[in-house]
Design a protein that fits this description.
The chain has 159 residues and is an alpha+beta fold. It is 31% helix and 33% strand.
């Protein structure tokens, strides 16, 4: 007995879309090495108790970093200081996102995205990836320029 015929959909290769999301601030919290894990949890609990959403959470060798909505920067700064955390809040950040279906099946694509971004001379605070996108945390005043460059160089590219 034969089942239904399955057709594989052709998926666009390379970068299919670039977007950027402004209105963010980046938070870096430095923690004592001897209590690193427990203090990371304490930071997350303090933020959660204030009902503040986090994005792009990264465990660093010296603490934890994450993104918040820019309008929460002062609140988060006060909250962290009030809980005796040493934190730096850097405003005016955006995330530039390069969408590419099956990104991890395309060797060198992430490197091309990062290389193009770095070629602008802009600071890149963090890079993250998912199966279908690369996310770059950059200063907001450079995000449009980076997004336009990536679009020019990568949209429609075939690997």
């Amino acid at each position: 007995m034969n089942g239904p015929v399955r057709k594989e959909l052709d998926t666009h290769r390379g970068v299919s879309r670039i977007e950027h999301r402004p209105g963010l601030a980046q938070v870096h919290v430095s923690l004592p090495k001897e209590q690193l894990e427990a203090e990371r949890v304490r930071v997350l609990e303090a933020i959660a108790s204030a009902d503040i959403s986090l994005n792009f959470i990264k465990l660093t060798p010296a603490g934890i970093s994450f993104l918040i909505q820019a309008n929460m920067a002062e609140t988060v700064s006060i909250l962290l200081r009030g809980n005796a955390f040493q934190a730096e809040v850097i405003g005016e950040r955006s995330v530039v996102i390069a969408h590419a279906p099956n990104m991890r099946d395309e060797p060198g694509l992430i490197a091309r995205i990062v290389r193009a971004t770095i070629s602008t001379g802009a600071d890149v605070d963090q890079v993250g990836d998912m199966h279908d996108r690369v996310l770059l945390v950059v200063p907001s005043d450079r995000a449009s320029e980076i997004a336009e460059l990536l679009e020019r160089k990568l949209i429609g590219d075939q690997i």
